[in-house]
Amino acid sequence: MKQDWEINDLGEVTEIINGGTPKTNISEYWDGDIRWITPADLGKLTKPTVDETTRKITFLGLEKSSAKLFPENSVILSTRAPIGHLAINKVPMSTNQGCRGIVPGKKLDPWFLYYFLKKNVSYLDSLGTGATFKELSTKALSGVKISYPSIYDQQKIVSIIDQSFTAISKAKSNAEQNLKNAKELFESYLKNVFSDKIAGNKFETLLDLCELAVDCEHKTAPIQENGYPSIRTPNIGKGYLILENVNRVSEQTYNEWTKRALPQANDLILAREAPAGNIAVIPENLKVCLGQRTVLIRPKKNKLVSKFLAYLMLSSDVQKQLLSYSTGATVQHINMKDIRAFKIYNLSTLQEQYTIVRKLDDLSTEIKKLEEIYKKKTEDLEELKKSILQKAFCGELTEKEVVL
User: Fold this and answer.
1) 6-148 and 203-345 agree in CATH topology
2) How far apart are the first and last CA of the chain?
């Protein structure tokens, strides 16, 4: 903060307007012309402004409740569930009791106030109280100290923040597009290389090509903190196992759950539902057992390369065909008989399979690298936004911040 900046309690330079909810069982209070926003609505916004709401109330509903109408270009802040969602309304609005409408006085620019609150979300959250869920009271919010320069300088600061955030958004979008392009290339290659495997005159079933296709135990394994991984459908990714937060079982449970078949390295585990069709290869040196709604598949080594089958099953056309056999109105479920009878046409030679797998592995590795780059880029850009806001409200922000 520069020495010539003023400092006040937020309640001294804004009007903080509480929200409310008209009685929901009185139809005359609802479906009117007054926009009425909630924390959930704020959380779904993809931009910092709002001009429409899911629900509206009538003037009678406004009059008969504690909801209040506040003018456009106010800052809306969610004060519970959670604390910290923000937007600027472009039309007059009201809120439920989980939000506050903060109307800036003559000394504050709305966007300066918006960015000030955005910078201080963690601090605002720390002011929340309550046993069941935290809520930021109007009194606590009113007492938050805000320092600010002249309106002219506020608008200059806002302009630099806007330009910086636009540049950051563009950089993030470019990284997203690079990742998207790589994934589309992978999907295109996957589709092309397996296009002749879904139809034709010559086919073999999965049962023909595999030593076994074994269903899981149809009961939930007792879990413990340590032990052998029990692979459930959430642990089955696109060709790989997801072992974060995996359930673990004792040796006794492991032995009982592997009586039908003992999973081995390079076996595949297929999800029969939620999400149906995902398939993963078991890596070396990992002992696992099957959780519910999964299938263990072991290809015949002289017929089928495990990774080739995994990639084939994950190609878009094969996924469509596999899921066309699924049952269930709300959750797709693939029956064992359909898995065993699944037809693979024009099977490639083992040498061709290995060549295809190497190419797909290379593409997959590139995508994983891009995903890491994108993740790091996103984290760095978020930190940059925080740094820009920090400088803005210390009076240190300059136009050079725009250059990334």
Assistant:
1) yes
2) 24
Query: 203-345 architecture in CATH?
Result: Alpha-Beta Complex (3.90)
Edge-first strand order for the sheet with 94-95 is 55-57, 30-37, 94-95
Mean pLDDT of each 10-residue bin along the chain, 404 residues long: 89 98 98 98 97 98 98 98 97 98 98 98 96 93 97 96 94 90 89 87 92 91 95 94 95 96 96 88 96 95 96 91 74 85 92 95 91 92 94 84 55
391-394-397-401 Cα dihedral, nearest 10 degrees: 0
- Return the CATH number of the domain spanning residue range 6-148: 3.90.220.20
Burial class (CB in 10 A: 0-12, 13-18, 19+), 307: buried
Structure tokens at 152: 């002219």
* pTM score: 0.76
> Which two tokens mark 137?
């009271």
Q: ∠ CA(386), CA(394), CA(396), 5° rounding?
A: 85
Q: What are the residue ranges spanned by the domains of the chain?
A: 6-148, 150-192+349-404, 203-345
